[in-house]
Amino acid sequence: MQIDYTSKRSLKAGHTVDTEYMINIGVEVFDKQPRWEGVLHKSLSGNLVTTTHEYGDDLSITTVQLDEDPTAAVNIYDMREFLDSVRLGEVFQLDGLNAVLSNLSSAYSETHTGYVYKKFSFQVRIL
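The structure corresponding to this sequence follows.
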């Protein structure tokens, strides 16, 4: 899965603020849930009128295990930089689609396996 983002926070060594970066991550969980927000009105005659305010997809993503190895194609520092850089609602590209994190109060979680291996889980809203 390709992610394109602009660095803002938690920069890894050698990266600069407001620079565009691209990472390719392996994904262990990729669950898609359709989203619809709107109002359904029913007249006295029984006719239905639907007013749609928003629709799209929400994704639940968990990465494969990543480690601290700075020579790895993607490591935990890349993921922290990406997730912290978009955690205040900044738009990023997920496989070419505009997206934002869907839950800003708990933007992501890290699951530890041993001392150096971590998986990252986060929720994405496709715009």
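Helices lie at 76-86.
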